Amino acid sequence: MTKFIFITGGVLSGLGKGIVAASTGMLLKRCGYSVTLVKIDPYLNVDAGTMNPYAHGEVFVTEDGGETDMDIGHYERFLGHNLSKKNNITSGQIYLSVVTKERRGDYLGQCVQVIPHVVDEIKNRVREIARDQSADIAIVEIGGTVGDIEGLPFLEAARQMRVEEGDENTLYIHVALAPVLPSGELKTKPVQHSVQELRRIGIIPDAIVVRSSKWLDEEARYKIALYGNVPLRAVFSNPDVANPYRVTLILYEQGFSDYILERLGLEKRKPDLADWADFVNKLENPIKTVKVGMIGKYTKIKDSYVSIIEALRHASAWNRVKVDLVWIEATSIENSSEYLKLLERINGAVILPGFGVRGAEGKIKAIQYLRERGIPVLGICFGMQLMIVEFARNVIGLQGANSTEIDPNTRHPVIDLLPGQRGVREIGGTLRLGALKVIIRPGSLAWRIYGLSEVYERHRHRYSVNPKYIDVLEENGMTISGFSEEGFAEIVELKNTEQFYLGLQFHPEFKSRPLNPSPIFTYFIQYIAEKTE
Ligand code: GLN
Asked: Which of 167, 287, 348, 388 has its CA 20 to 30 A from that of 143?
């Protein structure tokens, strides 16, 4: 019998509810229970793939090719195992399914409504995931903030599940903000109000996690317990920390997992957190510092690249190196080459993934600058494609070389649509997605990094190196050191050089985990650190 934990948010979005959900999952998994985590997003997009990262942060890609909310990435990193695209439910999916059933006649004779049909669909989905993934405990994070109109059917489903599954089999955890005034005083009233809002819907939380810039004192905890209607030991502090992986330890030390297990009638067990604590300590005690340039076009919203930031963090811990990120906006370089001077101060750069024309020429200029000076470059997806464009123009001399994504009429389409993409009309879910085999050339830099001749990495792209140009690229000093099974270029590097210059068509960041970091990022940081004083 599965136990269900629902996690709601109050006062503000962006409180790190996903990190709390992920930490809950990780602690319970380490207590020996089989755990799955589900993210609910109340928007009408069927998945996150059609959204600009400005709107909703990074699009995370699962092994099975789902384009999901970035919280699924947090869940995988904390749990240490893969989740499915099914673990991200959106209103778009729910409505699509209900309307499809209506057209098929499944509800023939009935008036199809939010209650019961939409809410039933939500409950069925959640139960189906728990069953298919054999979960002892399914943790369901409801995106958004309590009080949002679009979140109501999901909260109603969570409420109904307590009636249907029973008190001992359901648990509600509310995560809310207690702001601290400039005077230093911590205010609990917003937390109280958000609990009231939740109660109005019929949900009484079993535990309250209070996000704040500081720890709760006894008085604040007492107030929240009393007015939030939870036992004092069910109020947990979630103070600001620079390192999200520490949140798990902070919650554990307050008896978080013990309380949950007790409340769910499960045997209390002590999780072994030694390796996690070791990772957290390594991350917080670096021996040296390197500066890594992050060259992209969504640099104002750091959530756009969260998996890359995390992968660098994992690499930084295992190398005992502090990685200072230097954000460089590609569009600024486009407008003024003055910005290239920023690159003088960095020890290596990541050319970030992306789509579309804006910022592309800025990235190309940056790549040229870095390549000519031998500064280590790691290009991911669009970043790799632009490495090819730059090389074609400036080394081979193919004037006007470009990706057809940027210039459909280019004389030298060195990057072009994948053959399977021609004639694809629907944008949603139609890129080349998910984990696919990459065959690595023995003796190459990629081969030395992975120590394997075959790896599976996750993809999300429509364009790729044009096979017609592979010979000319190789004749002029590039090596295609990784290929897909169909023969598409997956990895590019420079021939006969010690220079770190690596372009990847895939996204190694999606598989990087604290305790199982991506070899690519680990090697990249190690290489830079060795070259830095
Ligand atoms: N826009 C490029 C493509 O579709 C790269 C995508 C990416 O960087 N994820 O192939």
From this structure: 167
